[in-house]
Amino acid sequence: MFNHRTNIDIQNRIVAFDIKELGKQLKKIGMLIVQDQIWGRVTQNRSKGKATWYFCDEFHLILREEQTAAFSCEIWKRFRKWGGIPTGATQNVKDLLSSPEIENILENSDFICLLNQASGDRKILAERLNISPQQLRYRTAAKAERKSIAANAEFVYQKSLRDNPELAQAAKNPVSRF
User: Fold this and answer.
1) What are the φ and ψ backbone dihedral angles of 114, each rounded to 5 degrees?
2) Full pLDDT tens readout for the chain, 178 residues
3) Which letter, b or e, does each residue of 90-103 get, where b requires 16 or more Cβ atoms within 10 Å of its Cβ?
4) 126-133, long-range: CB within 8 Å, 24+ apart, which pairs?
């Protein structure tokens, strides 16, 4: 993996690192190399007065390893001061919250966006993030509102097809839709 010069221009505006194919032996060192590259970019962009957005998908996986978890914690503490915007995304709340470093990361986060969560995960998050029962009810109401909007959109779509035979014919022919 690292025995040749890269053919990727890591000075591009957007760079995506995919370590999915690394074996278990290389994954830890691969994650550290990626984090080092990201830190270097933030440092470089800071001197130019540019912000750097660091987006880490499957963030809970980074927090499994002690070294990468510690580095991630350092990133969250320092990036904002250096013009960085660290962002972590995960679907595995329980795995994320099992990391000892997550407290520091959450405390150094200006913004947390919670999408739909299973009820068990909602309870854990409510307790851990001090989310009130009223806020949880708002989340549930928003979910119900989206369902009603989707149902109404489907109704309007079906009514449009019924009222407009030409549109209905086009809808039956997949080629004509594009």
Assistant:
1) -105, 120
2) 556 777 778 788 888 888 778 887 888 888 888 888 888 899 999 999 998 888 888 888 888 888 889 989 988 888 888 888 888 988 878 888 888 898 888 888 888 877 777 778 888 888 888 888 777 776 665 665 566 556 555 555 555 556 666 655 555 544 333 3
3) beebebbbebebbe
4) 128/97
